[in-house]
Amino acid sequence: MSRARKLKILGESAKYDRCNYANYNLDNFLTRKTPGIYNASTRDGCTVPLFKVLMTNKCSNDCRYCVNCNKHRFDRVEFSPEDLTSIFLDYYNNRYVEGLFLSSGINRNAETSMENMVEVARKLRMEHGYKGYIHLKILPGTSHDLIKSAMSLADRVSINMEAATPEGFEELTSTKNYQTDIIRRMKWMKRLGNRKDLAPSGQTTQFIVGATNETDQDILERVDWLYKKLKIRRSYFSSFSPIRDTPLENHEKPHPKRSARLYQADYLLDSYKFHLNELVFDENGNMNSDMDPKYCSAISNPENFPVEVNEASYSELLRVPGIGKVSANRIVKLRKRGKCFNKMKELKDVGVVVSRAEPFIKLNKRYQTTLGV
Ligand code: SF4
Asked: Which of 8, 206, 231, 314 registers the highest number of CB atoms within 10 A of its CB?
């Protein structure tokens, strides 16, 4: 099979592994003309074109949601480390991409497949002097030594949790173990990551949303634990999408906004330092898909409002709908210089979305309106 054909197949397979903030469709893959090129979005809204591909779609595991699941009959191909290195350098030298995101199916065993991935990174760094971005997916079950080698070459590493609980994980696969193959490896990565020369951009993970009975609360409890205990840098939420001829082909899709709401809640936990108990879940453990989690939290805790803009702490300002990190920072800085806010227009000038903030704030002791909810 030609290299171009393989690239099309393995680039397509890689698109089910997301690394894009708030992405719950596959539009960020530019596969038609340039297979494997993926526009990854950062949290601050920038996009970075990455070469995102699998070493192989051959896999001995039975993950029921996955296109590469061993039950799925379709074309199985693989790249050698030499081929993949040369294709990446072609893309990179032609400025199609700015970095590499490499993953793989587990052909025979995790160690051999991971060795091939590490070899690509080694060739790029040692033989070709490549100094750009490399993200290596760590395959479940990889040994400690090989994870360390991967981290010595990559900027970032990740291992997909896929599920938030051991029970959810068991619904997805019978060939991987949640505690030993995933959690234990993540703990190793955290410990190794204390060394500044090993994967300096840290570790991330991904959840498949809607393929199990897990609730939003289950997922966000796990995410909260990961940020606090394992110091992961980011969580990604990939909406389950049924794939023909795989075991979950008839499984229902999740609500189209569910992953987006999880991203918003995740941002509140990680970046705004919300406590888990400030998020609002219904009796089934799910968030309101029609309302953003910060607004939902504010109207469910009316005792915390209205907030006096001229006295509130940075953290209290951040809890006001319509006030983000940039505007909260500006308010605090201006106050330190003696500024007193009296009018909505002054808040608008520092970036506050006043139509959202108004019911939740006081300006110089004057309450602007009522919550009206
Ligand atoms: S191990 Fe990875 S590639 Fe293999 S079936 Fe599971 S999710 Fe898919």
From this structure: 206
